[in-house]
Every structure is written in structure tokens, then in C-alpha cells.
Amino acid sequence: MSVSPVNDSTPSPGEIASAVSHPAREQLELACVLHALSDPMRLRIVAALADDGEMTCGGFGLPVSKSTCTHHFKVLREAGVIRQRVDGTTRLNSLRRDDLEARFPGLVAAVLSAAAAASGTFAPEATGTLAPGGLRSPAPASH
Q1: What's the whole-number mean pLDDT along residues 44-65?
Q2: pLDDT digits (tens, 9 = 90+) for 93-112
């Protein structure tokens, strides 16, 4: 019986980055995007990215296990909602707002607005502070 040699080499960042696949803009499907946005944790991720831009996976402070977070990021990435890029040992996430807007005009704003209304907060584009659900709470009124 022959034994194959073990490859102990660590993949380069370029090799890791190439392993992170994203659908092209024209491949985005409404049903997949809506499914990705249907989960409260994934919606919280999208709301944070809509407001803060690029964030690391650990920067969201989600109250779920690391493996569950990984699952949520995978669903969002495979649906084309987020883009992930590798920076060293970290994955940086950003919202694919331009691609989503091109394929489904107004969808992101409508979903974030509806989610904010359902939770009693303003949309991330509005001023205010992060509420416990990850969405915006109203800014104090100035008179």
C-alpha cells in the first residue's frame, strides 16, 4: 500500500481569497436574496453593513455560536447579498448594495425600512444609535 505525502504547506492569502466565491451580478436571484434576508440575524448583519460599510465577521456581536455565524455569512454570500474578502486571517464583509440595486431597484432600502418599522426603530440610513436588534433607534429630537 502506498501512502501519499502529506502537504503541510499553508495556502497563500491569494489561494484562500480565490476560494471565496460570489455570484456575478447577473446571477443574483430574487428568491435567493429574499431567503437570505428572511432571517433576523442575517437581517441584522445587512443592517450593520448598510450603516458601517466593511466589517469583520466577529465585529457584529451576534448572540449565536461561531458556526452559526459562519452559516449566516455563507447564506448571505452565496445569495449575493454580501461580498467577503480575505485580509490575512480575517474575512471582511461588505454589502453588495450596487449589485442589488442594479438587479432589484429599491429592495435593500425597502427591506431595511420594513425591518426597522417592525422593530420600532428607524432605518440604518437615518440618524440615531444602534438598538439591541442591530437596527437604528431614533435620535433625540432637537427643538
Answers
A1: 93
A2: 999 999 999 999 999 999 99
SS3 of the chain: CCCCCCCCCCCCHHHHHHHCCCCCHHHCCHHHHHHHCCCHHHHHHHHHHHHHCCEEHHHHCCCCCHHHHHHHHHHHHHHCCEEEEEECCEEEEEECHHHHHHHCCCHHHHHHHHHHHHHCCECCCCCEEECCCCCEEECCCCC
> Residue 37 — very low, low, confident or very high, per pLDDT cuts 50/70/90?
very high
Domain boundaries 26-115, CATH class? mainly alpha
> Could you state, in order of their start, the residue ranges of all structural domains in the chain?
26-115
